[in-house]
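Suppose you are handed only these lines of text.
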Amino acid sequence: MISRLHYISQETNGKSHVENIEEACKAGVDWVQLRVKNKTDDELLSIAKEAKEVCKKHKAKLIINDHVQVAKKVKAHGVHLGKQDMAPKEAREILGDRPYIGGTANTWEDIQRLAEAKVDYIGLGPFRHTETKDNLSPVLGIKGISAILNNMIIEDLHIPIIAIGGIQVEDVFDLQLSGCHGVAIASLINTSEDKKETITEIKYCLPDGDF
Ligand code: TZP
Ligand code: MG
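From them, the structure of the protein bound to magnesium ion can be written out as follows.
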């Protein structure tokens, strides 16, 4: 089951990935993407092992961004792959059938390629401008996202779409109304003064059921 709220970790507010993950789990997230940039392989593996323990304690799923071998070593629930990362089909061979494999799409062409590769979900964005990611692709807005979702209906493609990029609480209802399965959020949650309230508000705008 693909959750409707994907929490993305960051080092922010003087807190480590693992500290932020624990706070997010306590505040109600059940799907955590560990997104570590600019660390050594050893540092990443050690963070991933700790993140796994925290997620296990809170019964949250752990998805590793970019690093298929790390996902395999820590027995993560899945991996999220951008366009510069390993091809989803290769990741599937390494990880086997069970783990979730998600991919990033910025265009309709990306969606078609990821559908062909049989990913389990697609992160589609950026919805808005965001400082969280470098080298951002052009912003899609609600119009761009809706156009892509309409193409998916026409082509009979059924893959959960998770909108990403600069998402605020007030965007979530419109995104789910446009046909997105859910949302992926980093800074809104990581910088929130009251994570429980923020996460409750986000979840309130999303349907209960999973895909
Ligand atoms: N990919 C596209 S936008 C983005 C990623 C990883 C960052 C999302 O973070 P935020 O802080 O919710 O904009
Ligand atoms: Mg990546």
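What can we learn from it? Residues 65-66, 82, 85 surround magnesium ion (ligand 2) (CB under 6 Å). The CA atoms of residues 164 and 184 lie 5 Å apart.
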